[in-house]
Amino acid sequence: MTTLRSTPLAAVHESLGASFTDFAGWNMPVRYSSDLAEHHAVRKNAGIFDLSHMGEIRISGPDAGAALDYALAGKLSAVAEGRAKYSLLLTDDGGVVDDLVTYHLPDGDYLVVANAANAETDLAEFTKRCAQFDVTVTDESAQTALVAVQGPKAVEIVLAALQKADTTLNPDEVRDVRYYRCLTGELDGFPVLVARTGYTREDGYELYVPAEAAEHLWQLLLDAGGGDLIPCGLACRDTLRLEAGMPLYGHELGTNIYPSQAGLGRVINFKKEGDFVGRSALENRDATADRVLVGLAGEGRRAGRAGYAVVNEGKAVGAITSGILSPTLGHPIAMAFVDPDVAEVGTSLNVDVRGKAFTVTVVELPFYKRS
């Protein structure tokens, strides 16, 4: 029997009465109270998430930018210090190994954040792809904790936490740091990276600290948030990201899925100099017949789930990758790969839910945008 890995906050989650699930070999809190309560808290006030199961890989050295340009589909060498970029790690054939956020840190190093399910694979790929460059690849996953605060009140909560701490961070800079940018400093004697990033389409921050500082940071934020901040598990993180139209590896992304199919063709930078893994395969393939990712919206309360068939005039034309009854919108939503000739917004289709056909309409992604 495989022993599940635990984050530095495992004891905290147990004390809060969390229910746990196996996620990519990690024993992770799936919920604390109810999925709906936690989802609505993030949309209305704020939620705090333990994301310490994610992988952190540091790329340092004089060739770090060039190495990442080769390893990833984007041009990371053009990212200014203090900024972040979303990119893709591709196979030689152009499929998606992982989708990643990379921070160009103020000290010049790059920090690549990998999905938990792919962290070991990503580390091996970066080690191999960077071998020809003058760089050092360091796995910092085990010694790093990641805590996210997401929601309309996230900014005031994080600022209130800073007021209670001994920190080198400038509160005005933390308040004003823009989306996909980051700051570094010290917080009560520990190094901290504060990033304006997230996976919910709400405002908020992701904070990286050494593993030994995780409980201190968590409690500092909870105390600052009071009744406006509640712990949130992976269940509501999934419903939040689906409303936000954000892909999840293993559902909307995979080695058998091309970026253009998932609506991520814009992430591929064919204008950058030199080669990158997957470039020639993507440049030379005909994608016109590929199924493409769309949003689907239905009526009533029955939601299609991953794997359910999408049907048009009795013929299967696709399959759902993720689907829920949207807590925010109050109706079923789903993402699905469908044939290109039925992918236009406004197209009426059916979803086969246990043998019964339910009508859905192709809609633009994301399903939810904050006002």
From TrEMBL:
Coiled coil: none annotated. It comes from the Bacteria. Residues 291-369 form the Aminomethyltransferase C-terminal domain. Its EC number is 2.1.2.10. GO terms for molecular function: aminomethyltransferase activity. The keyword Transferase applies. InterPro entries: GcvT, GcvT/YgfZ/DmdA, GcvT/YgfZ_C, GcvT_bac, GcvT_C, GCVT_N, TrmE/GcvT-like. Residues 11-272 form the GCVT N-terminal domain. It catalyses: N(6)-[(R)-S(8)-aminomethyldihydrolipoyl]-L-lysyl-[protein] + (6S)-5,6,7,8-tetrahydrofolate = N(6)-[(R)-dihydrolipoyl]-L-lysyl-[protein] + (6R)-5,10-methylene-5,6,7,8-tetrahydrofolate + NH4(+). Keywords: Aminotransferase, Transferase. The glycine cleavage system catalyzes the degradation of glycine. The glycine cleavage system is composed of four proteins: P, T, L and H. Belongs to the GcvT family. This is Aminomethyltransferase. It comes from Cutibacterium modestum HL044PA1.
